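step: validate -> pass
step: tokenize input -> pass
step: predict -> running
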Amino acid sequence: MTTMDAGTGRPRTTSVACRSHGSRYLAYAPDADSPWYRDLLVSPQATLGIDGVPHAAYAVPLEGGERGFVLHLLEVDAARGRAIADQLLVHHDELRKALAEARAELDGEPVRGRPGVRRELLGHCVTFCNGLRMHHLREDGAFTAIEKAHPGLAPALTRLREEHETVSRALLDLDELLQGKGELETAALREEFERVANGLDEHFAYEEANLLPALRGAGTSSP
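step: predict -> pass
step: emit ->
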């Protein structure tokens, strides 16, 4: 199970014993301090790896005072597809804005409402990277349900999954540079940042062009 760390916002992956219950899964926490349990109390979205396949799930606390959750796997019907399409655009817009602000700080330009201090770049980019990693992990789980509802999207989803892995590696490289010692405004940092930014621009555009029409009931584009 992958959850969002309630303290850092980073993805947290934990082996959790789940019991199937119809189309749902039951997960019991051994104690209230279980990290994944605390994570789901704050953000109930999770990605379950079941037999090697990621599934998006929504966690609802068990009733009767039991410490755990009922995990509802995502199913995509017409209404849910439209909701996913709308939410996808919201996430992409948020990530594009965060990327633009990080670029502005890297260039030494002031960001509206925040001091244009270059030393903030580290914290800003780390926050952005964590948010993007969580977005892609959750998408990987949602893709399983989307492909089941829209088999014709399989080639596009395969490409998007591969791009998620490429972006993840690029984020790790960027994080290593940001965590290193010395000045942040280096040619290596700028090159790595632009590699991530350009790849994301292309990834978002492809995803929107290929997924949104199908999720909104208007067909698909060619992969």
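step: describe -> The longest strand covers residues 53-61.
step: cleanup -> pass
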